Every structure is written in C-alpha cells, then in structure tokens.
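FORM 12-B: Structure-to-Sequence Request
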C-alpha cells in the first residue's frame, strides 16, 4: 500500500473531450515515509495539494486546447496532476511538465497510461533551488501557483533562469492577492503584462472566477 488513497475522475476539456485523471482521494491524504517531501520543503499541510483537480488547472487545460503553440518549447510549472501538459501533449507539441513534489512524476505517468498517451518529458522544477539542466522555454504556463507569500519572488527568479529571451508566460490565477507583487517582479524582468478576467464556467458547469495573467518579453520587437 502506498500510504494514501486515490480516486479516478473524468475531466471535461473545452473542445477536446475528456481526460481520465488519477488523483488523491481528498486533501487529508499524507504519506512521506522517507522524508523526501519534507526535504523538498513541502509541509504536511501542503503535501496533498499537488494531487487535487483544481478549478484553475481545469481552466488552464481548457485554454491550452486552443492556444497557438506552433513549434515553441513549452514548460508547465507546478504541474501537479499535469492537466495542461496532457492537453498540450495530446496536441503533439513539445511540452515538459515540472513540479517539486516527489509523487508528481508517478501520477503524471499513471494519467498518461489512463489516456493512452505516449511518454511525456518531466523534470523536477523547484523554484527555490537551481536546476540548470532544465533549460529555457519559449512558452511557460501554470495555474494557481501564487498562493504563498514567498511564491512571487521565487517564481520570478525561476522564470528569469528558464524563460527564453523572447518568451510568453501564461498564469491562470483565482484572484489571489499575491498577483500584484508578482506583476511588479515580472515588470522588472522586462515582461509586458495584461490581465483578462475569466468568468466563464468550467466545462462541467462549475462556476469559475479568476484571471489570465499574460506576460510577453521580446528583446527585439518588430518595428
């Protein structure tokens, strides 16, 4: 027994059918017998967060079903169960999923199998620790990742290392107060920013209220 319970859900994606997702049973689940999560800085109170199907993750997956990606290299940060990564991967684009939770890779692999998808690139993405092997990306996406006070500063520093000189970053945020601090940090990195309200319900009819934080940096803009 792994020490935690799971469940299986069918998650509707806008214009793209459904994904079958293996997730933790609830937020009460916890198992860190070897202290790997603690070593990564994940507290018992936050341990189960990676394994939930969050509304903002569903909204990001919906957006990725129709977003223009082209030949760009894409990174999902704080991927959790990897809904957006699965959608991008299903569209046959170059996507790398990343998270700092020690079980994120195993859950991602399980969800790839459930949806008959081939292997998907996964890398550890710890915002507070260096990972030079991760490389740089043209498009970086994430959802509901600004819920701690120190996240804006950590994430901006991480993006400075792993965003290509010309890059686009998309964050779906459920109106958390930390986004203002993050916006200022991104402006210092020469990213132009727009916010778009996201008020349309999710595909299952559940209400959603949030914003799309859209950042662009182009060191050599076309005249």
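FORM 12-B RESPONSE
SEQUENCE OUT:
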């Amino acid at each position: 027994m792994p020490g935690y319970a799971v469940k299986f859900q069918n998650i509707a994606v806008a214009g793209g059918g459904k994904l079958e997702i293996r997730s933790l049973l609830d937020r009460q689940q916890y198992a860190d017998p070897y202290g790997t999560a603690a070593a990564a800085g994940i507290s018992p109170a936050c341990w189960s967060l990676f394994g939930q199907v969050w509304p903002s993750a569903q909204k990001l997956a919906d957006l990725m079903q129709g977003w223009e990606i082209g030949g760009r290299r894409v990174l999902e940060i704080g991927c959790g169960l990897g809904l957006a990564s699965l959608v991008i991967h299903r569209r046959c684009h170059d996507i790398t999923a990343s998270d700092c939770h020690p079980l994120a890779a195993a859950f991602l692999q399980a969800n790839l199998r459930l949806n008959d998808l081939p292997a998907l690139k996964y890398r550890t993405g710890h915002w507070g620790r260096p990972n030079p092997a991760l490389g740089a990306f043209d498009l970086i996406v994430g959802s509901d990742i600004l819920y701690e006070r120190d996240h804006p500063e950590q994430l901006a520093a991480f993006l400075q290392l792993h965003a290509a000189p010309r890059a686009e970053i998309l964050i779906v945020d459920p109106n958390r107060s930390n986004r203002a601090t993050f916006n200022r940090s991104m402006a210092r990195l020469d990213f132009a920013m727009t916010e778009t309200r996201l008020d349309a319900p999710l595909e299952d009819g559940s209400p959603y209220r949030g914003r799309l934080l859209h950042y662009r940096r182009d060191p050599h803009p076309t005249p």
